[in-house]
Amino acid sequence: MTYIMVDIESDGPIPGDYSMVSFGAVVVEEGLGKTFYGKLKPISEKFIPQALAVAGHSREETLAFEDPAAVMARFARWIKENTTDRPIFISDNNGFDWMFICWYFHHFTGSNPFGFSSQNLGSLYKGLVKDTFKTFKHLRKTDHTHHPVEDAKGNAEALLTLKNKYGLKIRL
User: Fold this and answer.
1) For residues 33 and 8, what is the distance between their CA atoms, to the nearest angstrom?
2) SS3 per-residue string spanning 19-50
3) Catalytic annotation, residues
4) Which of 37, 65, 86, 156 could in theory staple to 41 by disulfide, Cβ–Cβ 3.0 to 4.6 A?
5) Model's pTM, two decimal places?
6) Is 117 helix (H, G, I), strand (E, B) or coil?
7) How far is the first Cα of the chain from the last one, in angstroms, to the nearest whole number?
8) Residue 57: what pLDDT?
9) CA distance 49 to 11
10) Model pLDDT, residue 94
11) What pLDDT is stored for residue 172 in this prediction?
12) DSSP summary character for residue 136
């Protein structure tokens, strides 16, 4: 299994009514050298300016981004090229990130290379340290900037720390 850490930015709370603006992915392995970055043109007229501000883009900028179908097809190829077995989707907030990635894959490519499940880094950490009030975020080395590749890398660094420091058994 190949763990792929994903982070998305959007212009609203749900896919379909709102748009995924950008996303980043990194194969979780030492060096974190395999990354993907996609910037997607909006799919609806609806957007929340505050959400775009978090993502660091204006509506005008996003209108010039790439066609979502092309980005998702390229992401599917990248996943296939960078995995030799089943890709595992993992993120900091998989409830949010997963719904956008899953919806976009099914809507624009007809299938999701990750299948029908995802994993949550925060929940994994809470179980490992046996405290549901603890957070893994201190384990990031890369600053959390809301650039999705940087955020995915920071979260991947935390997962690698769990593997190395706490003896978490994951196959990389």
Assistant:
1) 19
2) CEEEEEEEECCCCCCCEEEEEECCCCCCCCHH
3) 146
4) 65
5) 0.95
6) coil
7) 7
8) 93
9) 7
10) 94
11) 62
12) S
Element (H, E) at 160: helix 148-166
Query: What phi and psi, each to the nearest 5 degrees, are found at residue 59?
Result: -60, -40
101-134 residue pLDDT tens = 999 999 999 999 999 999 999 999 999 999 999 9
12 token code pair: 């609203």
Q: What is the pLDDT of residues 32-56, one digit of tens each?
A: 999 999 999 999 999 999 999 999 9
Question: Looking at this protein, which amino acid is placed at residue 57?
Answer: H
Distance separating alpha carbons of residues 114 and 2, to the nearest angstrom: 10
Q: Could you tell me the pLDDT band of residue 170, with boundaries at 50, 70 and 90? A: confident
Tokens of 36: 């993907």
Please provide residue 28's backbone torsions phi and psi, each rounded to the nearest 5 degrees. Answer: -80, 100
The token duo for 43 is: 């799919």
- Tokens representing residue 25 in the block: 């992915």
Helices (H), 28-147: 49-55, 59-63, 68-81, 94-109, 121-129
Q: Is residue 110 helix, strand or coil?
A: coil
